[in-house]
Amino acid sequence: MELKEKTLAKVRRYCLMGLNGKEIGKLLDISPRTVQRYISESGTRETSEPKTIQQKAFELSAKGFSYSEVAKRLRVSKTTVYLWHRKRKQQPTEQ
Questions:
Q1: Residue 47 has pLDDT above 60, yes or no
Q2: Residue 36: closest CA among 20, 52, 18
Q3: Helices 21-28 and 32-42, axial angle in degrees (round to 10)
Q4: Strand, coil or helix: what is 91?
Q5: Which of 26, 51, 87, 92 is least enclosed, having the fewest CB within 10 Å?
Q6: What secondary structure does DSSP assign to 67-85, as a single string?
């Protein structure tokens, strides 16, 4: 039972950080449905629009983290982070 309580605490923390159920499940290696059940059991609701991993990558890069550091923190490859940034630079800015 202790393992479930630790997992539940992690789910709450990630939920409050703005991650969605699929992202939380990927980080904790549990199904998104299990994440949904844990959120409803604990009474934790998503307080705002969840941020995507891609948005978090942009925020971390803006704070000065390298692509490698961002990749490690978000558990994606360095190439993925690079491609997200390249794609974002190629998009025309909205004004």
A1: no
A2: 20
A3: 110
A4: coil
A5: 92
A6: HHHHHHHHTS-HHHHHHHH
> At CB < 8 A and 24+ separation, what contacts does 60-69 make?
61/85
| Separation CA 64–CA 7 (nearest Å) | 31
Q: Which of 75, 73, 76 is nearest to 65 (CA)?
A: 73
Q: Is 19 exposed, middle or buried (0-12, 13-18, 19+ CB in 10 A)?
A: buried
Are 14 and 42 in contact by the 8 Å Cβ rule? The answer is no
Size of the chain, expressed as the number of residues it contains = 95
Q: For the residues 15-20, what does the mean pLDDT come to?
A: 79
Q: How far apart are the first and last CA of the chain?
A: 53
Average pLDDT over residues 50-67: 87
Q: Which residue do the tokens 């909205």 mark?
A: 94
